[in-house]
Amino acid sequence: MTSHQFRLGLFDLAGVVWAVAGAQLIRFGVDATSVDLGRSQIPYVAVGLILAAAWWLALWLSGTRDSRILGYGPEEYKRVTSTSLWLFGAIAVVSYVFQLDPARGYVAVALPLGITALLFSRWILRIVLVHERNAGLSLRRVLIIGAPQTAAHLNRQLSSHPEAGYSPVALYLTAEGPSASDDFGGGVFRTRPDLANILAAVEEHNADTVVVSGGAALPPTTIRQLGWALAGRDVSLVMAPALTDVAGPRIHTTPVAGLPLIHVTTPRLDGLKGIAKRGFDIASSLALLALLAFPMLAIALWVRLDSPGPVIFRQARIGRAGEPFKMLKFRSMVADAEARLEALRARNQGSGLLFKIKDDPRVTRSGRFLRRYSLDELPQLFNVLNGSMSLVGPRPPLPREVEQYDQFAHRRLLIKPGITGLWQVSGRSNLSWDDSIRLDLYYVENWSMVQDLIILLRTAKAVVGKTGAY
Fold it and tell me: Most buried one in 50, 106, 203, 386, CB count within 10 A?
């Protein structure tokens, strides 16, 4: 057990005890009460202790403290939530079968209190773990096996995300060829790919995880024998298929004749999913417009008084399926900003097709403040309401950008553009053109309502942090 897993155990125990104690006080106060079992009764204090112990054990047995899911991705939070719901579902079934009569208010309070406490403590501990991993601690030492290009790609991806907990210490190349592995700071092996050589590399670099890429020239029998040998050394074996930018829910494994076949599905934003996303957009935009009505009126007055010109700036953008629409924003530049554009081309600091200037002389005094906190984008709630945009989606492109798209970039237009998206929470104007396209394509290929909610939560942090806003 690692130190982080030990901390998780302590925090989980504190969370479930706090939940059952809070449920006891909220439901019954300080007065002692009990559950009627027919011929006997059990005090609710004892019930709470049994529930806390069962909850803590369920979290352990369901793998919520598995080191493979800690520090990165939503799987840890999903397991905590589903385990808690399954436990209380089992309690409801047992109570019905044996005709027990637990207070419904007690259960109704304990469950949300516990889930909230557990998720909050997991979030806090994840911040601590990510800080440790960024400092070079609590990392798995990884030996990567593969062809030069695939091994170098895995090395770059794992090294750029230390919060995931993997630190490449050596590359075992199964073929000759130029690659970025030549600049790798650890060990690079170019010997014949057989079991003895791989195990020697594991021992030499004290690796505790071996990652085999999809391009590794290893026969099936060697991979199977490698798994047996690594299991005896308590070293993890990870298979990395030649897939990139594919979210977990799209991957399904089916064992067929001893082969783990990987199915990759493509989410379709139609039917019930499309209705759910559109319904969420309408309800949320209406609620936000009602909540922000007076602040938006104040911003409109400020823009009007700060510089001559219209309050609302209407700009042609390209929406879903290439349909043009007028995107609304509070005007943050002088009225003749478009006419001055060509004179500023030489000062462009944007990447690719994006035009950005950090200290754009066309931006007004009010515009600098509005842009810093993304308040100039509030009128886009009307675009969401009329259906030309969504709350979350790819960045709405300009017509001149779309004209220069390649065949892959056109996939961004499969769904509606959004007020916010992965581009907004991942750096905004600091992103390169390639990164912006990659993030938008990832969103299109891996859309889910859960991902939309996560992006909306991260947007608030990005806006307050002001990173990349200009």
Answer: 106
* 37: containing domain: 3-134
- pLDDT digits 0-9 by tens, 177-192: 655 445 566 667 766 6
Taking the C-alpha atoms of residue 216 and residue 148, their distance in angstroms, rounded to an integer, is 9
Q: Is 166 helix (H, G, I), strand (E, B) or coil?
A: strand
Pair of tokens at residue 291: 């909540």
Looking up tokens 């509005």, which residue turns up?
Answer: 370
The reply to whether 284 and 415 lie within a common domain is yes
Half-sphere exposure of 266 (CA within 13 A, CB side): 7
Render pLDDT for 104-130 as a digit per residue (tens, 0 to 9).
667 788 889 999 999 999 999 999 999
Do the domain assignments include residue 247? no
Question: What tokens were used for 456?
Answer: 């909306």
Across the strands, what pairs with 173?
Answer: 146
- Mean pLDDT is lowest, of 217-221, 241-245, 438-442, for 241-245
Amino acid at 435: D
d(CA 186, CA 170): 5
Does one domain contain both 284 and 432? yes
> CA–CA separation, 184 vs 53, rounded Å?
48
Dump the DSSP string for 360-373.
-TTB-HHHHHHHHT
SS3 357: coil
Helix axes 293-306 and 271-291, enclosed angle (nearest 10): 70
Instruction: Indicate whether 169 and 124 sit together in one domain.
Output: no
CA dihedral 284, 290, 296, 297 (to 10 degrees): 160
